Amino acid sequence: MQPHATHPLQRASRRACVAVLVGSVVGSALLAAGPAVQAKSDMAAPAELASELPGAIWRGSGALRFLGMRIYDARLWSPVAVTGDGANQPLALELIYARSIKGELIVSSSLREMQRVGQFSDEQSAVWAKAMAPLFPNIKPGDRITGVQRPGESARFFVNGTLRGEVADAEFTRLFFGIWLSPRTSDPQLRQQLLGGKR
Q1: Cα-based distances in Å from 169 to 73, 82, 94, 119, 152
Q2: Half-sphere exposure of 194 toward its Cβ, with a 13 Å CA cutoff?
Q3: Which CATH class is domain 8-194?
């Protein structure tokens, strides 16, 4: 794949795609992000995490905005505090969408942002695009996508609490969740909020 574009218009175009993500990250947060102690409030974990991620509690949250439009709210769940990029920890990211998004755009923008985290071949991109296509339907306001990271194994995806499928690829899993949690993310502010940092 080509190196990450640096021209301002190319960056803006890429971020426009990213904004519709399952995927990722520009802009300011709307929801308060807080440390682990706040996660012990009355906010309950999504029902799908009862068996997928026992003991998970809310670690932090933020909202993605693009050109003033709210795209989604993001929440990070994990049994223990997430450190570093979280790549070796079981965790879940829950996205609650505020806008209608085409599934194919979720796939393409995910791949673009994954390349920011780590390089991969065109062939691998095609394999992952095919794997993601049935996992991400067209989204409407209020829909939720929950991704569960199983480190070194796979990523599982739920839409509105129902399992859609799994990508059994450790490298895909690392890069996908790195969209939000890697130090190389497009939006360090959202990353900090998800990890429990204060605004």
Answers
A1: 26, 21, 20, 15, 8
A2: 34
A3: alpha beta
CA separation for the pair 34, 32 (Å, rounded): 6
pLDDT band at 40 (very low <50, low <70, confident <90, very high): very low
Quick one: pLDDT at residue 197? 67
Contact in structure between 196 and 36 (CB atoms under 8 Å)? yes
Domain boundaries, the chain: 8-194
CA neighbours closer than 13 Å in the CB half-sphere of residue 37: 1
